[in-house]
Amino acid sequence: MKALLAALLSATAFNAIANDLPEVEVYKSPYCGCCTEWSTHMADNGFRVKPINVDDVPAVRARLGMPERYGSCHTAKIGNYVIEGHVPAADIKRLLREKPTALGLAAPGMPGGSPGMENAKREPYEVLLVGNDRKAKVFARH
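-> structure tokens emitted (142 positions)
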């Protein structure tokens, strides 16, 4: 009985933590499959995902302040942060936990093997922390 109670309390605590993750607004083309796959990756990692189909992703990226040089196929907004491209959920959770003063994270291009791009040949890539000054530094290497 104690083990069952402990398991239920653990599951409840896990669900409470998962539900505390902010909603992810994903601005994407309605025709992009890898954007949908990235959204699934985010949902599988406990985020609530709100897909928003747009005709011009670069215009949304510019409106949110992310420089084009860090661009990818989709742009997301999570709380006060902008997430550009195929950034792993673990990196986003770290960003939300550490709360640096920054614009957000970017995985420029469409790196093979990144979340949403798993069917492509795996290649090493970096996730960049983009500062409010629009300069970037390496946040994670994959």
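Residues 23-141 form a domain with the Glutaredoxin fold (CATH 3.40.30.10).
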